[in-house]
Design a protein that fits this description.
By secondary structure, the chain is mainly beta. It has a single domain, classed as AttH-like domain (AttH-like fold). The protein is 4% helix and 53% strand. Strands 1, 3, 4, 5, 6, 7, 8, 9, 10, 11, 13, 14, 15 and 16 form a 14-stranded antiparallel sheet that branches. Strands 17, 18, 21, 22, 23, 26, 27, 28, 29 and 30 form a ten-stranded antiparallel sheet that branches. Strands 2-12 form a two-stranded antiparallel ribbon. The chain is globular, with a radius of gyration of 21 Å.
């Protein structure tokens, strides 16, 4: 960005009319090039400056149906020193036990391979095993009553991915000048991992055996400028040798997108970016992508979407939140060489969430997160003062069924209805 005030304006002519698109979504990647294999550099910590937030997050659905997640957050705050946090969340839907910890760490550094990192409060070690599997091991002493010693392993055949190949794979770019962008968003995934180890909370041990996913994400600009809303889905099932259906979606804020129609009250037409994948039986089956919000969208042979249905206003947050939510994936099945074939794979999940208010009426509610109450103070003051936003994240954990259609040549070809667990987030940044 050229200066502290540059983010306040969008590219327009003297009459204030947008003169061209100023957002390049990664979901516009050609349909035959969606799968971008991960390189070692893709999972390295960048620790960028400016106003960049970088996270690595490990999720698991444990054997008893509980949910657990570890996250490292590296937040650069313009002129200030970076703020680094470790967070941990645990929720047991059977007992109602919930653990949420967020701690600022000291003496953070990335280690020799830049994929491992450490601080006084934790060590995270990345390792490639002799059989080609890859593994993160997390050892953390977060507080006196919470210690972690667990690991996440991706089997070699179940590929990690980004959308599109090369160093720009997985990256959506904001701004009308791609050589000097206003900002960017990056996502890179391990869609299916096996967790193991232990969590010690309040002197009691929790077995951490389970199935989950990992995501490395970077937001290279203020979060209120990136998106007005986000959706995230992480479905895991043990059937058919292990099934994972994951999805990440965001809708740009009003300053970025395509030019609006003449006479419109806004200069920009926001766009929605959706990326996702389906894995079955230890193999990545398909990668999906779609860009929505255009009047004349180019033909697409794959798609993925989130549909908020029967929304109701939540008096706690002021947002219209869904009482039902639906996810869909359709994409070219990958062949034995991980190239897109002519055959299609598809999946669908429908979920009844109940009422958003009161919270006791929301099915499987893990948390309704007031984001500004959780981020570091200096970031909170900057974002809240400048943007006037009030971001909330709804997190739910529910048993769910996935309808899965797999073509010939895919693992477990045919039509299936499978039981599993869905952890999802729907986030509102501003109206």
């Amino acid at each position: 960005m050229s200066g502290w005030g540059s983010w306040l304006s969008s590219e327009s002519n003297e009459a204030g009319v947008a003169i061209g698109p100023n957002f390049k979504p990664i979901s516009d990647t050609p349909q035959d090039q969606l799968l971008g294999p991960l390189s070692p550099e893709d999972l390295q910590w960048t620790c960028a400056g400016g106003f960049t937030t970088e996270t690595q997050t490990w999720y698991s659905i444990l054997e008893d149906g509980s949910f657990a997640a570890s996250q490292i957050i590296h937040s650069a705050v313009g002129l200030w020193y970076p703020q680094i946090q470790i967070t941990f969340k645990y929720f047991n839907p059977k007992t109602g036990q919930k653990i949420w910890k967020s701690v600022n760490v000291t003496h953070f550094s990335k280690t020799y391979d830049k994929r491992s990192c450490k601080a006084d409060q934790f060590t995270i070690l990345f390792d490639t095993l002799p059989n080609g599997d890859e593994k993160y091991t997390i050892d953390a002493n977060i507080e006196a009553d919470l210690q972690l010693s667990w690991s996440f392993t991706r089997v070699a055949g179940n590929l990690g991915w980004k959308l599109g190949a090369g160093s720009e794979g997985g990256k959506s770019v904001f701004g009308s000048n791609p050589t000097a962008p206003d900002g960017y968003v990056v996502h890179r995934f391990w869609p299916r991992v096996e967790s193991s180890g232990i969590i010690i909370a309040g002197g009691k041990m929790i077995e951490a055996q389970g199935q989950g996913m990992f995501v490395h994400a970077i937001q290279g600009m203020r979060p209120n400028l990136v998106a007005s809303k986000w959706n995230f889905a992480n479905f895991q099932s043990k059937e058919l040798g292990g099934v994972a259906a994951i999805m990440m979606e965001f809708t740009t804020a009003n300053d970025y997108g395509d030019p609006a129609d003449p006479g419109s009250a806004v200069a920009r037409k926001p766009l929605t970016v959706n990326v996702g994948s389906i894995s079955v039986g230890g193999k990545l089956v398909t990668v999906t992508a779609s860009t929505r919000g255009r009047d004349h969208a180019p033909a697409s042979s794959s798609t993925s979407y989130v549909d908020h249905q029967d929304t109701e206003q939540d008096a706690d947050t002021g947002y219209n939140a869904p009482t039902k939510i639906q996810y869909g994936w359709t994409g070219h099945a990958l062949d034995a060489s991980n190239k897109p074939s002519a055959n299609k794979a598809s999946a669908e999940i429908k979920l009844d969430l109940g009422k958003p208010y009161p919270s006791t009426e929301t099915k499987g509610l893990v948390d309704k997160v007031d984001v500004l109450a959780e981020i570091p103070y200096v970031v909170r003051k900057m974002v809240n003062y400048v943007a006037g936003t009030k971001p909330y994240i709804y997190q739910t954990l529910n048993s769910a069924k996935i309808s899965l259609d797999l073509p010939a040549g895919s693992p477990s070809a045919g039509s299936h209805t499978l039981e599993g667990t869905l952890f999802e987030e729907h986030t509102f940044i501003n109206v």
